[in-house]
Fold each of these.
Amino acid sequence: MPKRVDHEERRRAIAEALWRIACARGLDGASLRDVAAEAGISLGQLQHYFSSRDELLVFALKHLGGLAEERIRRRLTGLSAPPSPRDVLRETVTEMLPLDEESRTGNLVQIAYFVRALHDERLRGHAKEGVPALRAFFADQVRAGIARGEVAATRVPDAEAMLLIALTDGLTTYLLLEVCTPEEAKGLLESHLERLFTP
Amino acid sequence: MPKRVDHEERRRAIAEALWRIACARGLDGASLRDVAAEAGISLGQLQHYFSSRDELLVFALKHLGGLAEERIRRRLTGLSAPPSPRDVLRETVTEMLPLDEESRTGNLVQIAYFVRALHDERLRGHAKEGVPALRAFFADQVRAGIARGEVAATRVPDAEAMLLIALTDGLTTYLLLEVCTPEEAKGLLESHLERLFTP
């Protein structure tokens, strides 16, 4: 068992080296050799854990996804009262925005991955995987809002979920480009939710 | 004067070689030498027109932006009746989505540029330039909608403009990843506009 743990730990350490490069200068043109250097190991050692750049990217992305889910869960359980569906949606989308170093890193790695997935069908498959789960989770909140009489029954939960995901994603872009301030992005999402939660 | 025209034509031909690479395999790792080869000229000849990859990227992006504006203008003037503010917004965001080869190319080049701008303050400056003009144009349409009694006077034109831009951008991502179908994306934008244009 310890050997397995070491293996996973080493893989995570390599993924973190990749994140540092993604944050500092982006992954455009960064090679496995660059990642190995950042992780303080040889290219051969790195290739023992990851046979290709894409394999490393998929692992780094899943690891980041897990950390992001963990962060959202902590945020929701940390609220004083049981959160309403509107609270859950607000806290989740806020946690998805690049408002601190960790979520900024997550978003930058996700973008690097997205750019590769555009030209690689296999990678696009992975990219699609995460969306239905998030969409179903958001749709559940809208459905709960309708059941509580807080959202108009004419709203379509699945469509509202996709709108909210797309909106959060678009605001992420403009936050990273510094076109939008964090306060503005949060205010825009709040006013979108305000209108959604109107019986 | 003919010399100047030749110069601009050559620059456009090089930009188009860059677009072809962006569409086929992305710009991640593509060098000036690759672009020169695609354009059928030597690296030295290319460097006569563009001294750096970023200079070429900025030119290619501005040229694409000009073509996109032209396309939107043609679409709006091609409508049978003078378009209402809601028509203008619908037609403009639809034209921005990657629904045909030309707008798909435009979006792919924009993303390649965006990824570089994340790590380059000077490039971020260029990226920011286009947004205020689009935002002001969208805000004007919302304002006109309020004046015509089609949009509630409580709506804030500038905020609605940014929401619509971010939403269109997010949907572009999910269209490119094939998470969303063109019909779905257009339907989601239509229902967003439907709600905005409710007195």
Note: Chain B is about 80% helix and 0% strand.
Amino acid sequence: IHEPHFPNAVSSLSVDIHSLQKQIDELSTFSDTPAPSVTRILYSDKDVLARRYIKNLMGLAGLTVREDSIGNIFGRWDGYEPELAAVSTGSHIDAIPYSGKYDGIVGVLGAIEAINVLKRSGFKPKRSLEVIMFTSEEPTRFGISCLGSRLMAGSEALEKALKKTVDNQNISFLDAARSAGYAKVEEDLSSVFLKKGSYSAFVELHIEQGPILEEEGISIGVVTAIAAPASIKVEFEGNGGHAGAVLMPNRHDAGLAAAELALAVEKHVLESQSIDTVGTVGILELHPGAINSIPSKSHLEIDTRDIDENRRNNVIEKILQSALAIAEKRGVKLSEFKMLNQDPPALSDESIINAVESASQYLNLGHKLMISRAYHDSLFMARISPMGMIFIPCYKGFSHKPEEFASKEDIANGVKVLALTVAKLSRY
Amino acid sequence: IHEPHFPNAVSSLSVDIHSLQKQIDELSTFSDTPAPSVTRILYSDKDVLARRYIKNLMGLAGLTVREDSIGNIFGRWDGYEPELAAVSTGSHIDAIPYSGKYDGIVGVLGAIEAINVLKRSGFKPKRSLEVIMFTSEEPTRFGISCLGSRLMAGSEALEKALKKTVDNQNISFLDAARSAGYAKVEEDLSSVFLKKGSYSAFVELHIEQGPILEEEGISIGVVTAIAAPASIKVEFEGNGGHAGAVLMPNRHDAGLAAAELALAVEKHVLESQSIDTVGTVGILELHPGAINSIPSKSHLEIDTRDIDENRRNNVIEKILQSALAIAEKRGVKLSEFKMLNQDPPALSDESIINAVESASQYLNLGHKLMISRAYHDSLFMARISPMGMIFIPCYKGFSHKPEEFASKEDIANGVKVLALTVAKLSRY
Ligand SMILES: [Mn+2]
Ligand SMILES: [Mn+2]
Ligand SMILES: [Mn+2]
Ligand SMILES: [Mn+2]
């Protein structure tokens, strides 16, 4: 049995940032919208091509590739004690409409490159190392965020729901999965569940999606907790009618009810007086959506987050009260107010925080402890494994839009810290 | 030369309301959405089928059918002095998404039935009678209301614009027209223009699209003026970003700017303190439209109407000022504020008002003078011909939704009044 070469071999840690950048650029071309925007929706043709691209890179890195029945992809490097629980790392490659090419991607391509770095350095892992590409971190198609990691973490509610879940074209989740080559035999998706203890650690590398590291000139963010996201679907129903003929006092305009609620969300979030409370109306749709027709229905989707679960739930309660009051005032019906999800926050594991910090120190990289305001697959991996995250700076904190950017240097630093972190974790 | 049989033959005026209702029901099946809703968009497959249905009925009524190069359809019954300008009547059969089966339809199928009524009565017209089915009264596909009548009335601005007009799928107006069998040879659509004086009168039969006739138990509305419609397209551009990571003070949310403007439209309309002023935001779209993405762009279409053009234009000015103030306050860009149209109101011709009134009296039908708050092809026909309109009651004033309804009795009354009116006008 070999002693692991880390940390003695660390001086030879070299990230092939040119190849990695080329991979990031190539992956961004699997998109349903023109560059520089990226749109990659779960199980679309472009998603299937991008998955093939990832599996190919995993193969080239010498990893053994496995996929589960909803398309979570695993690339395994067997350690010299392969019976031990593996150390895993990974992220997602799906991209919301008109977004950018770094969110998620850096944590998948960067993880494969971290494996290459360790292999080039001569390192041999004790625990096996696994790179995971999670299915559908983004809720775009089926309204479910972190679908892959949530199911992997054993959500029986999700397993049941997926049998009846359809997208907005009324295509079922199962049909969509089958069209991409998954969910082939079974209806039962519980095969995706992983037991607690399947991994000794999970680490995710990700762009910060916020401005702090860039503003403060710090290379590495060590995530201590992930803010708790909740999302709400709201529908109002009014009377509609002709935009010319129905006089103002006779109107019950579902669109104006939606507009009022959108502004109420902002108001209630600001009332919390905490910088950590955020709320967003990213979806607001009117029916029938014609210039000369009073909206008879409106549909909103609201995202609220906080690092304090109670404070967040208080905002949700106020939003509900506003929705009821607006419906009452305008004589429209609040036909739906549904929590799409309401997840608890997650804390990083102390040993992983320490491993990331010491890797940063070893590499002489400035680092700071911070909170993740965005959710990540790590939020759900925390349910079955000790969890940690590594953030790198990104341009102006931009994310979910084409201007999203992280520099080669910052990406290379992130990959090095990730490589050292998983190497260290693999020894325990 | 025969003397016209009207009014001697009037006792034999019989509307075949069962056939007419059957036609209304059949026409409603040419729809892109399920019954009871009707969706019939310009030049769609269903529109082409519906046009065939209308031409067939015109043929069965013994009318000579002609179509112009954008698909306005004309069915002519030659008078015994065919060199005189004809008396025309008609309306539209396109239907906005998820609307009903009476708006426009009653004025097309009812006009053909009015011809049948006159033919059965033995009446012979002096001036020729023409039934017109106008192309695209609704602005659904190309954002242009009363497209057919507007062009027929000689709008050179429209003729030019149509060469560059595209729908939201980027299909050009000309390609769409060609796919429906129109605009085949020429790029130049000025062949559609009709000279002032081409008709001695134009009369349109239409459901009221308002509650007054039903509430007051009156059978016939005699329209004296059509309210002046204006529509505005507005776009805001913000910074977008991730719904979790961008903190509230750093946001420039284009969606909330749109929500505020929608509420400002309502406010400014109500400030006019006139019951005749209306304003509607029927279209409000967010980009990218994802639950976890702050809207980076928003698009609104606003419809404002009034019987007083200055008062309406004052509301538009206030909406502009609000849009500028909202953009300033939220740090978003008001990237578009464009008048899509801003048409002057139209007055009915005294002689046509008189003809409709005397026909109603002759038939012992209660009637009242009223204003049309909705626009109609009549608004544009007024530019080239003396114009008048006949309204019939409709259920609760509903229109532009599936619940739109007019009773057989009211429709039959409207057809009789229309038949007598055009018969009378054809003698002068
Ligand atoms: Mn994302
Ligand atoms: Mn992500
Ligand atoms: Mn209409
Ligand atoms: Mn109409």
Note: Chain A has two domains: 8-227+345-425, 229-342.
